[in-house]
């Protein structure tokens, strides 16, 4: 077994997707309530008002985590529960909720991994220009300071942003997610720069308050998978992974624009060239703050795509086989992405890697005997974790794996139609049922991963 003894066996969720209680506990409105209320934006006109009602049922949920034997739990904090208007007076009820959750986790020896921002921007801040407003950097710094000061004695693991590609790209380029805008490239690059500055400021302020904190970042990527082990194909896939294109519908969907500044202290040259006319002023002192040292590099990986050398030092995509394996949401099943992704990222950024999300949606339902059978999820996780173990064997420094998701939840524009959880949620009754995959994961964790090598 290549995984470390202290490997983090986790599950992940996010505030808007599970908490519910959208109008309780002093929580302020977020961009998602507004987006969901607009006709046609979310399948079935659904929203996260109640979701999994985790706000009221967190004790039961932590009990389920303990039954699964997870060693760490990644959750996000709703900024507007702490600061209903995004800035100003702290809402003590919001602090109390997360503080109680942290206590419940620690009581079960589950390490809390706090994500500061998983897309639910306070609506009041959106009305002030959201991420386009340069003040967003100080708004976020202050919010991070409050969280670090109030929870930092018990919480030692922090992630600043989840998938900036999505909340900036899907939220402001394609408009598929809240706040649902299609903005100019100039505006989008300005926002992206503010998000990176906000990240660096948060790292700095958490470090000041919690000197023993482990701090990371959780962008996402689809991974180019070399079609063969020929070094030319491997090199082609590596190039594809870090390349930048302005052609795509969502030009924010790339690795290097979001990660080079954070980990290498500079924007990628290709991007500077391709996006030149739309870039804001980038000052050397900005890069210093953006590249505050972090402790681990999180990455959300769900799938990849085949790539080969084009014979001229470049790369080209290769079509998939007809009838290729797909998850319920339609994403390809590509376990190799959990080998090549961590490997390429570790080579370039040289930071311990944590897979901060990985998983799939399945067509799960309750069988006549009351169980939820999800063999596809077990097979998927088994294959992906085997690939990750292989990456660790080949020298990639991997600290942990968080399955997405702990429980079924509100899948953004897809509403409740996609079930990503290892715990089934009946949204009518709020009953929870551990799916077969939850028991499989429990056994795997108990074996400290050894079962991966026995089957
Ligand atoms: O549900 C999302 C999550 O919020 C961010 N990463 C991908 C998941 C599945 O789509």
Number of strands: 12
> Given the C-alpha coordinates, what overall shape results?
globular
Topology as a string of helices (H) and strands (E) = EHHHEHHEHHEHHEEHHHHEEHEHEEEHH
Distance between the termini: 13 Å
How would you write the strand order of the largest sheet? 1-2-3-4-5-7-9-10
Calculate Rg over CA atoms: 21 Å
Main structural class: alpha/beta
- Which segments are poorly predicted (pLDDT under 50) over 5 or more consecutive residues? none
> Major sheet, described briefly?
8 strands, parallel, barrel
SS summary, helix count = 17
Oligomer: single chain
Question: Secondary-structure map with pairings?
Answer:
Elements: E1 8-12, H1 15-18, H2 31-36, H3 54-68, E2 72-76, H4 79-82, H5 92-107, E3 111-117, H6 123-127, H7 136-151, E4 157-162, H8 164-172, H9 185-209, E5 214-218, E6 220-226, H10 231-242, H11 256-264, H12 269-275, H13 284-290, E7 296-309, E8 315-317, H14 337-349, E9 353-358, H15 375-393, E10 398-404, E11 423-425, E12 432-434, H16 436-446, H17 451-454
Parallel strand pairs: 1-2, 1-10, 2-3, 3-4, 4-5, 5-7, 6-7, 7-9, 9-10
Antiparallel strand pairs: 7-8, 11-12
The structure holds 5-hydroxymethyl-3,4-dihydroxypiperidine.
Based on the model shown, name its key terms.
455 residues; alpha/beta; eight-stranded parallel β-barrel; two-stranded antiparallel sheet; 17 helices; 12 strands; binds 5-hydroxymethyl-3,4-dihydroxypiperidine
């Amino acid at each position: 077994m290549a995984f470390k003894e202290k490997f983090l066996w986790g599950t992940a969720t996010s505030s808007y997707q599970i908490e519910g209680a959208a109008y309780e506990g002093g929580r302020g409105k977020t961009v998602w309530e507004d987006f969901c209320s607009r006709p046609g934006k979310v399948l079935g006109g659904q929203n996260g008002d109640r979701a999994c009602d985790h706000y009221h049922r967190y004790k039961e949920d932590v009990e389920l985590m303990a039954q699964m034997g997870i060693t760490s739990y990644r959750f996000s904090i709703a900024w507007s529960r702490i600061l209903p208007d995004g800035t100003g007076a702290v809402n003590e009820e919001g602090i109390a909720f997360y503080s109680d959750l942290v206590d419940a986790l620690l009581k079960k020896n589950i390490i809390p991994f706090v994500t500061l921002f998983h897309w639910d921007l306070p609506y009041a801040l959106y009305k002030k220009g959201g991420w386009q407003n340069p003040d967003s950097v100080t708004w976020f710094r202050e919010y991070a300071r409050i969280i670090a000061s109030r929870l930092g004695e018990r919480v030692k693991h922090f992630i600043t942003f989840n998938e900036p590609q999505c909340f900036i790209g899907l939220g402001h380029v394609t408009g598929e997610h809240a706040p649902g805008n299609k903005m100019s490239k100039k505006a989008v690059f300005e926002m992206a720069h503010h998000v990176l500055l906000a990240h660096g400021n948060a790292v700095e302020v958490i470090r000041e308050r919690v000197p023993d904190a482990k701090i990371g970042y959780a962008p996402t990527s689809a991974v180019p998978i070399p079609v063969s082990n020929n070094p030319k194909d491997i090199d082609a896939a590596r190039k594809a992974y870090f390349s930048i294109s302005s052609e795509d519908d969502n030009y924010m969907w790339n690795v290097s624009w979001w990660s080079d500044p954070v980990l290498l202290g500079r924007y990628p040259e290709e991007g500077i060239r391709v996006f030149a006319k739309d870039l804001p002023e980038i000052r050397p002192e900005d890069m210093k703050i953006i590249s505050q040292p972090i402790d681990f590099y999180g990455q959300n990986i769900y799938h990849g795509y085949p790539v080969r050398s084009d014979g001229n030092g470049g790369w080209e995509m290769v079509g998939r086989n007809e009838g290729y394996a797909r998850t319920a949401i339609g994403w390809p099943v590509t376990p190799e992405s959990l080998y090549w992704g961590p490997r390429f990222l570790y080579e370039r950024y040289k930071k311990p890697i944590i897979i901060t999300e990985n998983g799939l949606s399945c067509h799960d339902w309750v069988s006549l005997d009351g169980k939820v059978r999800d063999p596809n999820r077990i097979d998927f996780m088994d294959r992906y974790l085997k690939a990750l173990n292989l990456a660790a064997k080949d020298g990639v420094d991997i600290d942990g794996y968080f399955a997405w998701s702990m429980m079924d939840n509100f899948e953004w524009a897809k509403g409740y139609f996609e079930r990503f959880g290892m715990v089934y949620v009946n949204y009518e009754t709020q009953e929870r049922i551990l799916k077969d995959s939850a028991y499989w994961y429990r056994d795997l964790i108990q074996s400290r991963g050894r079962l991966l090598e026995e089957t």
